[in-house]
Amino acid sequence: MTARTTPASGSPTRSADNRPVVRRRRPPRGPATGWVEPALAPFPWESTGGHKIGGMALRLVQIAMNAQDEAAVGRFWAQVLGWGIASEEPGVISLEPLGFAYPDPVAVVIDIIRVPEPKTVKNRVHVDLATTSAAHQADLVARLLGLGATLADVGQGDVPWTVLADPEGNEFCVLEPRPLYRDTGPIAAVVCDCADPRAMARFWGEATDWTVHEVTGDYASLRSAKGVGPYLEFVRTPDVKTVKNRTHLDLRPYPGDDQAAEVARLRVLGATDVDLGQGDVSWTCLADPEGNEFDVLTPR
Fold first, then answer.
1. How many domains does the chain have?
2. Within a domain: 4
3. Domain of 200?
4. Is residue 117 part of a domain?
5. Which of 58, 50, 49, 62 is nearest to 262 (CA)?
6. Which residue in 82, 122, 133, 193 has its CB near the most CB atoms, within 10 A?
7. What is the mean pLDDT of residues 51-66?
């Protein structure tokens, strides 16, 4: 099955059910199952003056969400974000902003990947949506509930943001207006639960070309060095990781860089190999020092 594309003019076409289709085709991604807990490793950059080993870095280009019905979940998130379908293959649907030139740090795009297993625990990785006013927040929540979202209770208590879940129960937040997120686009942040935000900031700050913006004992944030797009945030939680993450990050080397060399660099930084049943694929599956799975894609 080939992905749906637009004419050479670049103007979006429409799918059979009138969804916008964006010009670009990404290679299909396969489902992953299982989880192997990695061992922790030291952070070698603490003795190298903060420089990235070998001077290399990776780009955070997309997040991958697991779903039993990738088409339904993909349609939901396309409507939530106002994005289009970049490609649609058996078992995976890819979403990105209309007119987007992949990859670009102005957005972290989304792949929805079919898996057989249902969601069983609260996700350790979720997205926060940005709003510009109290009225915008209320309107957005109402619109999302109309699209099939449900209110979710993850023990948040009385907070100014609203916690929702998509049609398969994947939690996400609609934030109250915050100046920090005024220029991020619809996704304010990709948020990861963790035990040690400082350690996660050190690892991901060295793994990627993103800049660390804030680090405390309870919270850390990074953003593209170009100062655009969403933030990557790590929030301390008491929860223990027990299953494979249902949402994970995908990293991509720059054109001309060596994927194997980047993977080796990440292992030195504390990443470990994981076998998720992926088989013979073009990407490499790793886990960060807290066991969060992520993929290193081929250069592009």
1. 1
2. no
3. 13-296
4. yes
5. 58
6. 193
7. 78
d(CA 202, CA 208) in angstroms, rounded, equals: 10
Cα 290 from Cα 295, distance rounded (Å) = 15
Q: Looking at the domain assignment, is residue 8 inside a domain?
A: no
The per-residue pLDDT for 57 is 87
Please, what sign has the CA dihedral across residues 123, 206, 285, 254? positive
Report the CATH number at residue 168. 3.10.180.10
Rg (CA), the chain: 18
Tens-place pLDDT, residues 106-116: 999 999 999 99
1, part of any domain: no
Report pTM: 0.82
Tell me how far apart the alpha carbons of residues 248 and 193 are, in angstroms, rounded to a whole number.
12
